[in-house]
Design goal:
Radius of gyration: 17 Å
Helix content: 25-40%
CATH topology of the largest domain: NADH Oxidase
Largest sheet: 5 strands, antiparallel
Number of helices: 6
Number of domains: 2
Bound molecules: flavin mononucleotide
Shape: globular
Order of helices and strands: HEHEEHEEHEHEEHEE
CATH architecture of the largest domain: 3-Layer(aba) Sandwich
CATH superfamily of the largest domain: NADH Oxidase
Strand content: 15-25%
Amino acid sequence: MAYSEIINLRHSTRSFDNFLLSQEHTDEIKKILKSTESLSCQRLDWRIEKIEQAASYQLFAPVKEKNGISFIEYGFQGEQAVIGLTALNFGTCWKGYSNSFGAPCFIEFGKEKSNKKSLLIKTFTHNGVKKELKDLIMNGSAFLNNENTFLLNCCRMAPSAINRQPWSFDLLSEEKIKITVPKAGNADTYSIDLGIVLAHFFLGCKDLGVSIKNTILSVNSCVFELN
Ligand SMILES: Cc1cc2nc3c(=O)[nH]c(=O)nc-3n(C[C@H](O)[C@H](O)[C@H](O)COP(=O)(O)O)c2cc1C
């Protein structure tokens, strides 16, 4: 299945059926984690733990330096794992609080019970509805072509904390695209969202078979150049 198809299938799952992760599943997930690429050669040490008194598991990696750059990396690697877990038919949900292992947040996963969402979650997240592409492009829409439209649509479907979809896109040319999130001070809560959207761009490029060069400009923006 193409990454773009998995990206379109993915949604946050908040209700899980009881199940025990088999050795086979664990091995498959470890394989996904091994194949996850990093933006800056900073490989994170992802771990799988059962969540106590819940039907689900968590995927997380300890992060030594709590700064925007490592959070971008966290989102980038973590979202590749989310897409891999979705392909294995697991339900996933990023969870925006840290755990005792020093991770900035974690990915809950398991067997999805139903896609019924609580009214509260529906209200806070606009039921997961995504913004239109035209509303996310700030500059350079004249440079849109089939290839970059495909990539930006992959980005548009990315999960974000409280579905804020904080990203904006500037097309500097047909091959050069800047992705920006707002600056949020030291803690930079948007950096994980940025890493996640960058992962969607990156996986879209894999579908197209194009190679890319990325330049992280700051904790809130990155430029991709398509080759
Ligand atoms: C960094 C991050 C933190 C999140 N934290 C939570 C959370 O604590 N609880 C929750 O129910 N959903 C959480 N979400 C899931 C978002 O609410 C969800 O991605 C968003 O509403 C879009 O819906 P979708 O994932 O179905 O596309 C988080 C997502 C991200 C990316």
